[in-house]
Amino acid sequence: MSVEAAHSLHNEPHEHEEHLAHQFMNREQQDESYIVGMWSFLVTEILFFGALFLCYSIFRIQYPMAFQEGHEELSWVYGCANTVILLTSSLTMVLSVHAAQTGKRILSAMWLAATSVLAAGFLVVKLAFEWYPKFQHHLIPGVNFHWPHEQFTEVAAGKAELFFGLYFAMTGLHGIHVVIGIGIMAVLGTMLLLNHKSTQYYMPIELAGLYWHFVDIVWIFLFPLFYLIGKR
Amino acid sequence: MSIQQAPAPDTYVKQESEPVKNYLNAEHTVASWLLTKDHKRIAVLYLISITFFFIIGGVAASLIRAELTSPHGRLFTNDSYNKLFSAHGIIMVFFFLVPSIPATIGNFIIPLMIGAKDLAFPRLNLLSWYLYTIAGGIALTAMIMGGVDTGWTFYTPYSSVYSNGQVVMTLIAVFIAGFSSIATGINFIVTIHKMRAPGLTWFRLPLFIWAHYATSVIIVLGTPVVAITLALVAVERVFPIGIFNPAQGGDPILFQHMFWFYSHPAVYIMILPSMGIISEVIANGSRKRIFGYELVAFSSLAIAGFGFLVWGHHMFVTGESVYLAMVFSLISFLVAVPSAIKVFNWTATIYKGNVTLHAPMMYALGFIGLFTIGGLTGLFLASLAVDVHLNMTYFVVAHFHYVMVGGAIFGFMAGLHFWWPKITGRLYNELWAKIAAGIIFLGFNLTFFPQFVLGYLGMPRRYHYYPPEFQAWNILSTAGASVLGVGYLIPAVYLSLSLIYGKKASANPWNAVGLEWQTASPPPTENFEDIPIVTWEAYDYTMLPDVESDLDYSSLENEGSVSGVPAGGVK
Amino acid sequence: MSGHAHVTPVKVYFTVYVLLLMLLVATVGVYFIPHNILNPPAALAVAMAIAIVKAALVVGFFMQVVYGSKLTWLWAAIGFVWLSLLAGIMIDYSTRHMNMPDGSAFDRMQSQSSVE
């Protein structure tokens, strides 16, 4: 901010004063603070997941066969279905933000509800159709892990366990973020329906949107890295 | 809201010193403190908490030194000694040094310095303190339930597979503390970008702000990496996912890479805010603008940037390629350039300045000397061949204590004394402060200089048995630690007493420039009655009236400036 | 409820969504190309390139960074830049064998992975 900002202070209309937190001078300052704050939080998230992607890369280079064989236990159909679900939920999320920006409160809440239903659908596919069968097939590291291909190939069970360790760590951390996202959307949707003071202003929904798109982006990378390692 | 021109600089010194309402007496209930969103109150809460953890870490340090007076380890079993130095390291690094300056002095002073009413996200700030407190509680619980014996570095696979202590619980504590510092970092970044007063451009900012900006960037970019790394260790103790376990094809060296990717920059999280304080204090103590302001500002960012490229110098003996090690060694040497820029520019500022040796200035001068020793011995360790000899010896311990204690804590003490009148509205006893500063300086050198010798002679760190010929050096070091301990107790006494018996401080007891001195001491809840408009550079001491005559503080003595400042200062 | 925000037309959102779905089809399509036509590293590179384009579309339009201020650009970019620094850790893994003048350590690692 420089001297120009000082001039703009005088031109600033005060009709939105009620949505202005006391520490800010005007709405522009407040809006950009929230956006930059959210982005710097997402930077921490990028590096948080990034370290896991680094582990993945290092071990995939070292043990290509273990990853190849491990990924054949995953179904690309479920992965693809979940990608479609998450991409669609990103669309409903931006529509919710758009509705909030144009003052359509109920519509915004409806799109938020649609987003959280899709997010719940993602979790159902993930847990019921993917994680639960893995449990039955003894593919959870540490829980009676059993690698059925050991006698046929030379992939050591430990390395397969490493692959599934990474799979569960990365999709698990992503899943936790999905659950948190559903929580945020449920709270914001309820506040919108009750016409709560905080959501009369679109910024909270915009910030929830930024978070949700980030969750989507993580999945955009997880999908090809785990489900599409390569056909033999 | 009304925006008015700031008071003309010549009204700086004489200001109303008795505010009707300030942040301390605005409300008195316990809830008004525990649920406060005021950055000043949160800073005070943080100050109390980190002092508590400093005492615990300090007690652990005293016990370590007591144990090392004998070469045969008479006081503790091997296991207890392992847990003791781990506790000292974990508490001091994660619960004292990392949050020490940013969360207390930074939290209090940054909004005042940039003319803002508060940080950008006050609730996030409060959340940060709660996360810190919860994390500290968990860490203490883990310690009471048996503690950990991994050292503060949690190296795998010992920590992930073999150690029997409360590793998971301690890791959870450090993980939560990481999010507490991320919250502070995000808050500072946004505040410094967006909340500056009109006219306060980047190159008019005090260097304290630049240092905190660089620190916050490191916190935001580094902490998540160590958080996920430690989380993986915790997960690996429960489920054998094998990432750090060589038995499963995992790689324990990968842990060291990811750990030091944060933990080396974390050293700069501890030292950069301290450097910011030193810039403020040196400018005030020399009554001059910091020489080469822009270079000092950019050197903070350079240190933050280079800091992320040197993690490999902690791993010269882990089998990394000598060519890669050469690159890491070279970049580590390059970090010395921005650090030296700061040191030379501070000394150039003092040169021909109107030097006043007040207590903060004494700490600042101590900082310059000790940080130089700490930094230069870092170059020994960054040299490939020398590091093979010195790695894992007491030389390393002495080196990082010179940077952490001689650097970070001296800066913290300088800042605490410098802004104590602003924070509490009271003046401390300047004579005792100077005596304490001298004792701390002597005690510190007596404690840690012998450790350089010990390390060079080959005494490994983290052992309590050692050859008897090292005993004399160890006893010297322990004697120094006792002096250092006394040195820390004196400020605890006179600072506490000043809260009750101290003279009321004026708005600007140091006769300093900077927006934080324009508002009352202690400041009102909203910080400024009118948001200032800044038209001047930082440290413009020429705009203070009659600098020469004001150096004789006698005219201010009655209005409550710091007592005991030598009349006329030292030229 | 209106603000100073940039309100993107809904048409843009739907276009981006359709593009994302098309890229998803493309990435699955690449998966089915036999390895003798597209070798695994190339397939990985294509899959990652597609993922990066998809992520860029989400960041740019859904997260509105293309309409954002310079500061938003800066903070949106810095995370990805730092991620590449973190990836620098991999240099260690590709250079460790250099400690052996004859590359023997590297050979040992190679033989290990061929045994698996």
Task: Write a concise synopsis of the structure shown.
The complex is a heterotrimer of chains A (232), B (571) and C (116). By secondary structure, chain A is an all-alpha fold.
Outline the structure in words:
The complex is a heterotrimer of chains A (232), B (571) and C (116). Chain A has 232 residues and is mainly α. In chain A, 75% of the residues lie in helices and 0% in strands. Chain A has a single domain, classed as Cytochrome c oxidase, subunit III, four-helix bundle (Four Helix Bundle (Hemerythrin (Met), subunit A)), CATH 1.20.120. Mean pLDDT of chain A is 87; it is low at 1-16. The longest helix of chain B is centred in the N-terminal third of the chain and has 36 residues, at 78-113. Chain B has a single domain, classed as Cytochrome C Oxidase, Chain A (Up-down Bundle). Residues 1-19 and 546-571 of chain B have low confidence and may be disordered. Chain B has helices at residues 30-34, 39-67, 78-113, 122-144, 158-162, 167-194, 207-238, 252-286, 293-307, 322-350, 359-382, 384-390, 394-424, 430-457, 471-501, 547-550, 554-557. Chain B has 17 helices and no strands. Chain C is mainly alpha-helical and 116 residues long. Chain C folds into two domains: 1-68; 70-116. Chain C has five helices and no strands. Chain C has helices spanning 10-31, 40-62, 70-86, 90-95, 104-115. Chains in contact: A-B, A-C, B-C.
Superfamily (CATH H level) name of chain A: Cytochrome c oxidase, subunit III, four-helix bundle
What is the succession of H and E elements of chain C? HHHHH
Number of self-contained structural domains of chain A: 1
* SS-derived structural category of chain A: mainly alpha
Reading off the top of the CATH hierarchy, the class of chain A is best stated as Mainly Alpha
Largest sheet of chain A: none
CATH topology of chain A: Four Helix Bundle (Hemerythrin (Met), subunit A)
Oligomer: heterotrimer
Shape designation of chain A: elongated
Low-confidence stretches of chain C: 105-116
The count of β-strands of chain C is: 0
What portion of residues of chain C belong to β-strands? under 5%
In round numbers, the mean pLDDT of chain A is 87
Biggest chain-to-chain interface with counts: A-C, 68 and 54 residues
Task: Quote the beta fraction of chain A.
Answer: under 5%
Query: Radius of gyration of chain A over alpha carbons?
Result: 22 Å
Counting DSSP H or I runs of 4 or more residues, the number of helices of chain A is: 7
